[in-house]
Amino acid sequence: MVLRSSELHHNLQYLNGMLTTHEAAKHLDLSYWHFMHLVEAGRIPGVRVVDRWLFSPDDLNDYRRSKFGVLEDMARAALESPAIGLTEKQTVICHYLIANERPSEIARKLQQSRQAVHSQISLIREKVTRLQATSLISAESPTIGNTTSPIKRGKRTQASL
């Protein structure tokens, strides 16, 4: 969307609260150049006013959610199920993920490598998947286990033929 200077005063209310390119990049914890690459590729919506881009915080949060929402949902599922057996470090990582922290930010805060944090996230994902598979199987098992055949199978004899 491009706004001309004559249209600008009509749209000031909409523009109130918008973030500049540098502010938006910082909001998403991305470098300016990577952020601009995403904008130019159309992955992050923005408004071009004369020669500047402006971004809605809501659009930026939607982008973050689309990128990291699966991790947040996984972290919630892991924390809600004590049967998963998370380690202390995995529990801390889940809390950070729910608080919208990116894995690179978590690594900095825990003074761990990004690879170590990603490995822990992979282990959490495996535990959640295993628990979901187990609960799915156990939900189906009573139906399958309770079905008994009314016909008893045995050897046929010549008389029954």
Automatic annotation (TrEMBL):
Q: Which residues cross the membrane?
A: none
Taxonomic path = Bacteria, Bacillati, Chloroflexota, Ktedonobacteria, Ktedonobacterales
Which InterPro entries does the UniProt entry name for this protein?
HTH_17, Sig_transdc_resp-reg_C-effctor
- The protein's name is Helix-turn-helix domain-containing protein
* Pfam families recorded: HTH_17
An example of a Gene Ontology BP annotation on this entry? regulation of DNA-templated transcription
Where does the record place Basic residues bias?
A: 152-161
Question: Where does the record place the region Disordered?
Answer: 142-161
* Domain Helix-turn-helix intervals: 18-66
Molecular function terms, GO-annotated: DNA binding
